[in-house]
Prior knowledge:
Elements: H1 2-33, E1 39-43, E2 46-53, E3 64-68, H2 76-87, E4 98-102, H3 120-133, E5 139-144, H4 146-157, E6 162-168, H5 181-187, H6 191-197, H7 200-216, H8 225-229, H9 237-248, H10 250-257, E7 268-273, H11 285-291, E8 295-300, H12 307-310, H13 312-326, H14 340-355
Parallel strand pairs: 3-4, 3-5, 5-6, 6-7, 7-8
Antiparallel strand pairs: 1-2, 2-4
Amino acid sequence: MPTLALFLLSALALLLSGLALLAEMRGREAEARYPPIGEFAEIDGVRLHYLDIRPDGWRAGDPALVFVHGASANLRDPHMALAGPLTDRPAEQGRAARLIFVDRPGHGYSQRGGDTMYRPAAQAALIAGLADSLAIERAVAVGHSWGGAVAAQLGLARPDLFAGLVFLAPATHPWPGGTNWYYDAAALPVAGTVFSHTLAPFGAALVAPSAIDGIFRPAEAPDAYGERLGLPLLFRPHTFRANARDVAFLKGEVEAASLRYGEIAQPAAVITGETDGVVYPHIHSHGLARDLPNAWLVTLEGAGHMPHHTRTDAVLAEIAKVVAMAFPEAGWGDEGGRNANETAEAVSSSKAAAASE
Length: 357
């Protein structure tokens, strides 16, 4: 019996070693296929990958937008949806905005940093540091899904820098239940590392097509979305584990953070898809509209978790409203900016809707 047990353990060790080697090889193949598309900056010892689209003639004080992607993604997601239409805005609609797309720590080509980098506040500190290093004096943060928790922290920690916020299908409040088992498994201290380097990358690759369908439902995903996203980058073991820790520990983080949301005084657009099946709109988006004193809620009928892709025009309109309020001198106001009375009315109506839930 001891001999059989030793044989089985040896076989298991060989299998796991082989899977780990194969996962590492696939990770290198993904990096060769989807190389970095931006630049790098070291912020507090962490190397961040970002894409800086700076229009000709842009100067300090002109509009700047900082985009924070969600879980299981990288900067390519908001970039493919929003960079084109924002870059192509006609000059008569206001001064051109500088666009900063950043890989969150541990995602894409950004280094992870320390063991507490699963915290939205820790990631926000690095992203704010990046904006400082780029000589951005004032900006609007646009956060999608998990990135919404980071946008909230940017609003809390750096109101001097982030003068407006846009939340896209945000995950910002505690919810009933937990997360999928594989996130919890990959987040474990030792076993999670083994799981992330062996079984998880292959299982995740198998379910990825159905997962993409789910986040876009009821709409269709854009053509070649996974290819344009560089989705195989997610299946690199270190990225998969970082993503899993972000998701597994988010509930506790937003439970504490949400107690302070009333301190966020900046104008904030909260955009949610009515049929979002990934995060609960009545908890997160309605919660933000309730808790933030200068927020308004925009519910997109028939939209799911990816409104920046499926309802791009509606999202752009709300971004323009926030930019008009954060940069009143930039000339974006004619496109639907809200004056103080309109904002108060929007906040009042959204709070009433949230209270009726």
